[in-house]
Description:
By secondary structure, the chain is of the alpha/beta class. It folds into 2 domains: about 1-80 and about 265-295, no CATH class; about 80-245, no CATH class. Helices cover about 25% and strands about 20% of the residues. The protein has helices at about 15-25, 35-45, 120-140, 180-190, 235-250, 270-275, 285; strands at about 55, 60-65, 70-75, 85, 90-95, 95-100, 105-115, 145-150, 205-215. The strands form 3 sheets. Strands 1-6-7-8-9 form a 5-stranded mixed β-sheet, with helices on both faces. A two-stranded antiparallel ribbon has the order 2-3. A two-stranded antiparallel ribbon has the order 4-5.
Amino acid sequence: MPDEPQKFIDYLSIEPALAACVTETTQGQRHIKPLHMHFSMRLVLEGGFLPQEITPHPPFAYEIRSGRHYLTLDESVGTLTERTVIGGVRSKQIDVVVTKPSIGPVVAISFKGTQKAFRNLTNRMEEALGDCTNIHLAYPSLVYGFYHVILANRPDQIGKHRLVGNKNDVSVSSSDVIEPQVQRYLLAIQALSGRKTQWEDPSSYEAVALHFVESSDDRVSRTFESIPVDSPLHRDLFFGKLLEAYDVRYPYMAERVREAKRVQWEQESPIVESLQDRLDHPFEDFLGYTLRFAS
């Protein structure tokens, strides 16, 4: 049975998706599904991948006129279906996947959202390591990203917040220092990031991002700036690393394979008017990223 149409458009910018990580329950991945929607749309708008190449299918369609690509909004086609990728050891459902019909899966992103019980982060580490190795064994050239949202729970929330019941649910101290149990995880996951070529260790991701989000009622869903901007785990570097790795491994290495190239959208595309009609200020200021327009 096909998925019901989803309100993808609510998550064009990342902030509402981050809010869901705080306010939604983990049942059925309700807290993390909005991030799937956000990045599936961003892969089209900023990445230049075609809508039908992406799972979950974003709410877009396109047409080609005189060799130019025109993007349109079509909310009826947005679904939350995940793609199953056959790995080297087992099959794996991955949150967001770009698949080129004649090439196979080329980009994949896994997401985690940890709301509490931070003592279990070592389990997340083991899962991340196993998933990455499994997929890269079957597809060494696949560009794989891991995006982890961690709630910035503080000691003064213990017993006063639905997600903070005891000290194991605290990730940030009262002096804004990341707790040791979380810091150890950051050091470990950083070692799994930055895979440069398809010949490197299959247990490493091409990009990893750690995003701390406030959970207290007075600043819910705001970013807690805990990761240095020059850290390989900083969120602002994540998407660019994926696109750069893809370009080097696919269109650069196979210039004559037209399908491998990322497209550029015409500035006269109907999507521009559709987005602008919803806002009272320039939509790119709202998005927080730049659309891949043809120059």
